[in-house]
Amino acid sequence: TSRKEGTLRGCLGELEPIDPLYKVIQRATIKTATSDFRFLPVQKEELSQIKIELSVISEKKLINDWRKIKLGKEGVMIEGWGRSGVFLPEVALEAGWDLEEFLSNLCTMKAGLPADCYKNPKVKIYVFEVEKIKES
Prior knowledge:
3 helices, four-stranded antiparallel sheet, 29% strand, alpha+beta, 8 strands, 136 residues
């Protein structure tokens, strides 16, 4: 995750990397700066204003009841119909969303699926925990 003066500037990563962590960090940092479709690529002039935050995630766990998600503590990945999306745990807290808003936005904003897709039994929902490493 990159933040410019505290505001989100990009966030991309790898959920199931096969390379050592240091290589994943390098790749994810470059992708976050250049390929997050929500933002223009980072410009050289911005670099001094950007702070990097790493989110090292635990192994994801498939759950069968979305109501058991620990909002603000667990990140969530949703998969359905060949599409997927991920939100880190802090997204709900930063946006002020309850669990259903969190999941609806995950479905639409990140996975490109209907807002209530998380209620469909064909959709897989995974949870994971995160260890944060912040640039000072």
